[in-house]
Amino acid sequence: MKKDDIGDCRNSIVASQSFSASRRKFVSGSMAVGVSSLSIPFISKIAHASTAVNVLAFGGYEEPGMLTEFEESTGIKVNLKIHDGSDEEMIALMQTSSPGTFDVITPTSAYIPQAIEDGIIAELNPTDFPLDDYFNIIAEWPPVWKSGKLYAVVNRFGYYGITYNYKKFSESAVSSYDVLFDPAVKGRVALFDWFLPNMGCLSKYNGNKNPYDLNASEFSALGDTLMKLRPQVGLVGNTSQVIQAMAGGSYDLAIAGEWVQAGMYDDGLPFKAVVPAQGGVTWDQAVCVSAKTPNKANAIKFVQYVTGPAFQSKLAVAKTYYSMVPNKKAAAMLPWNKRQLLNLGNLEKFDEIFMANLSPRKSPDNREEWMGSWEKFKNA
After folding, report:
1. 51-73: b or e for each residue (b if 16 or more CB lie within 10 Å)?
2. For the chain, how many helices (H) and strands (E)?
C-alpha cells in the first residue's frame, strides 16, 4: 500500500552523523512521557480516576514532556502507539479493530471525508475545542467539516514549495518553479518519492488553481511537465535519503517545505524554504475520535489538549520534525526565532498573506492515473 506523503516522510527518517540524529529519530510503540509545567485551562477538570485513552498517532507525541500535563491534570492515562505506516493503514486499524482499541487517531485531513462517509469517526462539537484561537483558514478547513458538522480538528500543518541551498541560490532565484527546469541545475534536484505533493506543486506551476481537480487536458499537461522535469532530478528517495544527500551537499533543490528545512536550518545547514509565485500545497494532521469508542469522554479531553496552546507550542518544534501549528496562542508562546523559522511571525495576517497561495493537499478522483504517471516518471 502506498504511504501518504507526510506519513511516509515522518516515518522513514533515520539517524545519520551528518544530520542531527536526535532531531529526526522516530520512536515506535508506547512510552512514558516526561514532566511539563504548562497549564491546559481549556480542558474541564475531572476527578482523578483509573481511566485511559488509547491513541494511535504519528511521530512527536511520544517525546518527553508532551503528554504529562494532560495525564496529571485529568487522571487519564494515555496509551500511546506511534504509527509507522500510511494514513490509510491508520484509519483501517481504527475501523477493523475492536471498539476501544484506538480511541483517537491523527491522519491527514485529506482522508477525513472518506472516513466520515464510512462512519469510522465521530461527529465533534465545535464548542468543545479552542477554534476561536485558531487561524480562521485552519478552523474552517473544508476536509474536516461536512454539512456544517465537525469531525476532526487540525493540530499540525505545513507546506510544500521549494527547499533550497541559500548559499547557492537567492530567494528571488527560487521564487518560481522555473528554477527546477534550469539546465544549470541538471541532476541537482532531489524529490521525495510520493506523487501527491510533487505533482500537486507542478500542477500549481501549470496554472491550476485547484491542483488536484483536473480535466483530461490539464492532467495530460501535468504529465508532460513531470516528464520534462525528469532529467533535472538526480535522486528520488525516501526522506532519510533525500535529507542526508542534501545535508551532504549532493543536491541543492527539493520540492519540500518547513518540515524538512526548519530542522536542517536549526542544525546549521544552509537550507531555506519558500512558496514560489505559482503557489504550493499543504500537508497536515487532523485529530479525530472513533465512532465506536467506549471512551468518548476521555477521547474528547485528549483532543482538547492537543488542540490547545500548551501541547502545540511543543509540537511545533518536536525533534521528530518541525511544523506550523494552527493555535495562535501556541505560536505566540514560541521564541521569536522559531516563529520566524516557521512563518508564524505575523499571526494576524497569516491567513491572507502566507496561506493565500497554498492549496489543500487532497486525494484526486483519478488517483490511480496520478500514481501511474508518477511511476512512469520514476522509471523514465
Report:
1. ebbbbbbbbbbbbeebbbbbbeb
2. 15, 12
Q: Which residue in this structure is represented by grid cell 494532560?
A: 70
Contact predicate 2/238, CB 8 Å: no
From the number of C-beta atoms within 10 Å of its C-beta (0-12, 13-18, 19+), residue 1 rates as exposed
- Classify the C-alpha dihedral 375-108-160-17 as positive or negative: negative
Residue 297 main-chain phi, psi, to 5 deg:
-60, -45
Could you tell me the CATH superfamily of domain 160-281+364-379?
Periplasmic binding protein-like II (3.40.190.10)
Helix 239-247 × helix 5-12 angle, to 10°: 60
The three cell numbers locating residue 150: 465537525
Residue written as cell 511545533?
316
Query: Do residues 293 and 372 lie in contact, with contact meaning Cβ atoms separated by under 8 Å?
Result: no
Q: Are 285 and 107 in contact (CB under 8 A)?
A: yes
Residue 45, burial from CB neighbour count under 10 angstroms (0-12, 13-18, 19+): exposed
**Each residue's pLDDT tens digit, 194-220:** 899 999 999 999 999 999 999 999 999
φ, ψ for residue 158, nearest 5 deg: -175, -160
Beta bridge partners of 16: 19
Instruction: Name the residue with cell 545519520.
Output: 16
State the DSSP string of 189-214: EEEES-HHHHHHHHHHHTT-SSTT--
Ranges of beta strands (E only) in the chain are 51-57, 76-82, 104-105, 145-146, 149-150, 153-165, 189-192, 233-237, 253-256, 271-274, 280-289, 358-359
Residues 49-76 have pLDDT tens digits of 349 999 999 999 999 999 999 999 999 9
Beta strands 280-289; 153-165: pairing state = antiparallel
Same fold: 5-157+284-359 with 160-281+364-379: yes
Judge contact between 197 and 204, C-beta under 8 A: no
The CATH classification number of 5-157+284-359 equals 3.40.190.10
pLDDT for residue 361: 85
Of 211, 162, 160, the residue nearest 185 (C-alpha): 162
Rounded average pLDDT over 320-333? 93
